[in-house]
Amino acid sequence: MPGGGRVNRTRRGMIIAMDGPAGVGKSTVGGLVAKSLGCKFINTGEMYRALTWKALEEGVDLDDDRAVLDLAKRLKWEFKPVEEGGTTLKTFLDGQGVTLQIREERVSVNSSRVAANPGVRRFLSKLQRELGRDGNIVMEGRDITTHVFPDADAKIYLDASPEERASRRYRQLKSAGQDADKGAILAAILKRDLSDLKREINPLKQAPGALVIDSTHLTMHQVADKIIRHVRREARDAR
Ligand code: DC
Asked: Whose CA is nearest to atom 8 of ligand 1?
């Protein structure tokens, strides 16, 4: 079978699953692919970040797995575009959009603790599968191709060297007029790689049958074009 996965033919639309390390451009590329194919797009890291933010706000001990899971279960989770007709789904907790809050530094440095919580991973994986039930979605994260949708219609593993990912982040911050230290950015990226790759449950790894793209020397548009061509090929071969 093309792609090497168990393609689920009961869904109405396609699922395009993407994984890769932090700062590799999954969201930019995923958004481009979704627009071009007329799909919805969701970044699942935002779910882990949203829960981290809420736990910090409420003073929940992040090392207390049970308390963090209880918090996740108490919340009302919604995923919807922020603007009319938008295709990118954003996370809302109890009716509140959290797009800005989840980018706070305290969330960035603590979200890997929440992502290591087995109950939380099970809970969020279930939400992600519900979101993808009808297909027609591009979903990105760390375990989408390996765990959440191993039967996705197309699986992509996006990679780039840590140095290139750090340089991209550095340029992004500089062009937004912010202070940036390239060495510190690289150190943070290496630390995040380590926690993603070494996590006991659903660590980041290449799924069997995933198309691996090294984007170190490619633009985001070139990467998106490669993925779109791959998705079309997989769809044609599955017919
Ligand atoms: O992509 P990101 O850095 O915003 O993700 C935030 C955290 O969530 C990070 O620790 C990786 C983790 N994550 C995960 O474990 N599984 C996913 N499917 C998505 C993100």
From this structure: 45
CB 236 within 8 A of CB 7: no
147 lines ligand 1 (CB under 6 A): no
Q: Ligand 1 within 6 A of 48 CB?
A: yes
Task: Give the number of other Cβ atoms within 10 Å of residue 66's Cβ.
Answer: 10
Extract the tokens encoding 102.
């989840």
The amino acid at 71: L
CA angle, corner 68, sides to 19 and 28, nearest 5? Answer: 25
> What is the pTM for the complete model shown?
0.93
For residue 145 and ligand 1, the question of a CB distance below 6 A is answered with no
Backbone angles phi, psi at 135, to 5 degrees: 75, -155
Model confidence pLDDT, tens digit, residues 102-147: 999 999 999 999 999 999 999 999 999 999 999 999 999 999 999 9
- The torsion defined by the Cα of 14, 15, 16 and 21, in degrees rounded to 10, comes to 180
Options 3.40.920.10, 3.40.980.10, 3.40.50.300, 3.40.50.150; CATH for 15-237 is 3.40.50.300
Evaluate whether 77 touches 93 at the Cβ level (below 8 Å).
yes
109: how many CB neighbours lie within 10 A of its CB? 13
